[in-house]
Amino acid sequence: xxxxxxxxxxxxxxxxxxxxxxxxxxxxxxxxxxxxxxxxxxxxxxxxxxxxxxxxxxxxxxxxxxxxxxxxxxxxxxxxxxxxxxxxxxxxxxxxxxxxxxxxxxxxxxxxxxxxxxxxxxxxxxxxxxxxxxxxxxxxxxxxxxxxxxxxxxxxxxxxxxxxxxxxxxxxxxxxxxxxxxxxxxxxxxxxxxxxxxxxxxxxxxxxxxxxxxxxxxxxxxxxxxxxxxxxxxxxxxxxxxxxxxxxxxxxxxxxxxxxxxxxxxxxxxxxxxxxxxxxxxxxxxxxxxxxxxxxxxxxxxxxxxxxxxxxxxxxxxxxxxxxxxxxxxxxxxxxxxxxxxxxxxxxxxxxxxxxxxxxxxxxxxxxxxxxxxxxxxxxxxxx
Length: 384
Known about the structure:
single chain; alpha+beta; hpI Integrase, Chain A; 3 domains; 3-stranded antiparallel sheet; 10 strands; 41% helix; 12% strand; elongated
């Protein structure tokens, strides 16, 4: 004869759940296990915990999963909330069922090791650790229960991993640019050329809208102001158009009512897609979309553009109101941006020492000696 299960437990899709009244309080939750024995042990602990809270005023035992849920509900306004949610979804597998006071750097080691096995960089792993640290700090300093106690007595120190494995920027030489752009699909070629002449990020280019364009009649040109909601640092960003990017914009006019860059009349979600990856493999270049921003910055510096103007052109935070300019100031920025055009007189070629110790050629032979690369290539002739 099968033994009777503890009242208040029921099975749903092979997983045990609790639905029980305890001292006037109703508990309804999943136990996250298929084992009846484990479910009964968990229920016994929940009953005792609730007795301690209701009869003696003890701090409720809350899981990290409960705290993560509260964090996500309270921070829907955050621009990075989707990225936070993605990290918490992974973390839930490792610490979701743990009591808050049991979440510390030791308990997070399985998460860290698992992420390393999938070749995630320390900076990416640290993002998840920072979310955990933020939740624990909120639980110990801001989240107060009905009994007047904080969710957590004190937050443990979550030490981040040293960022010593980050991939170094790979600014393109002119020859490398030509080599890569030749094998990109036309729509990505235009977007890449726009990126390397404006320093815009992948998301900024993909989301670029015609409503953000501002005409400047005094200069016979226009600029774009990207709202902070579409910019990584949260600040409105001025995008100045040089000769090359102005020709790209003019060619794209009237092709789509909302977005500047599209493919088959639909917006593009990201530049770093399968087509980009195939092209860089064909060109034998370890280049990411973000390297185009580094390329723009390096070329501006080589052309003698001032630090302040480079900040404005790259959209970096500077402490200034960077979207309030006179026509003369914008004219100066356009002149600076034109200095990196191949057709501009006085163009300064960039000479760069690049150590190719981590680059492997198609034959598999490592290139280990420092190589002096003279960057004197060509712009894509269509927009030169």
